Amino acid sequence: MYRAIAKSLAHLRPTAQDRGQFFYGFVRFGTLDFERVALQYHFMRTELVTTLKRQATDLLADIERDKKPILITQHGLPSAYLVDVESYQLQQERMTILEGIARGEVAVSEKRVLTQAQAEKRLAKWLK
């Protein structure tokens, strides 16, 4: 399993843009076998609220270009995230799907389920 992970991560190589976002290390497999593995860390860009006030247009252009969120801090504490519209809408769609799955799991655990025939009977008026 560990070898498969190492092979899947082996293609990661830092570029000038990624400087500081990669960690190279050795991972031990078995008793004497070592392999080099690259682990990518996704550091979120952080900006001060004053930077947002002064450079809002530039930050919005960066978000639109990079599609990476920016964490806005106020007095050293996280205050807000700036995300592009497409990513936000995709996230909302995913949340809607996950909420539906969670409601379905609750219904199954509470034994509120129907057979195929019962479901077809209930939905017959809409399936015409």
Look at the structure and give the mean pLDDT. 77
- The backbone outline, from C-alpha atoms, is elongated
Low-confidence stretches: 9-42
Structural class, judged by helices and strands? alpha+beta
Ends distance: 51 Å
Strand order of the largest sheet: 3-4-5
Helix content: 40-55%
Q: Give the helix tally.
A: 5
Quaternary status of these chains? single chain
Count of β-strands: 5
Could you walk me through the main structural features you see in this protein, from its secondary elements to its overall organization?
The protein contains five helices and five strands; from the N terminus they run H-E-E-E-H-H-E-E-H-H. The chain is of the alpha+beta class and 128 residues long. The chain has helices spanning 2-9, 49-54, 56-66, 85-109, 116-123, and strands at residues 22-29, 33-40, 45-48, 70-74, 77-82. A hairpin with a 3-residue loop joins strand 1 and strand 2 (33-40). The longest helix is centred in the C-terminal third of the chain and has 25 residues, at 85-109. It has a domain at 1-43.
List the SSEs and their pairings.
Elements: H1 2-9, E1 22-29, E2 33-40, E3 45-48, H2 49-54, H3 56-66, E4 70-74, E5 77-82, H4 85-109, H5 116-123
Compose a concise summary of this entry:
The chain is α+β, with helices and mostly antiparallel strands. The chain is 45% helix and 24% strand.
Defining key terms:
5 strands; 45% helix; alpha+beta; 128 residues; elongated
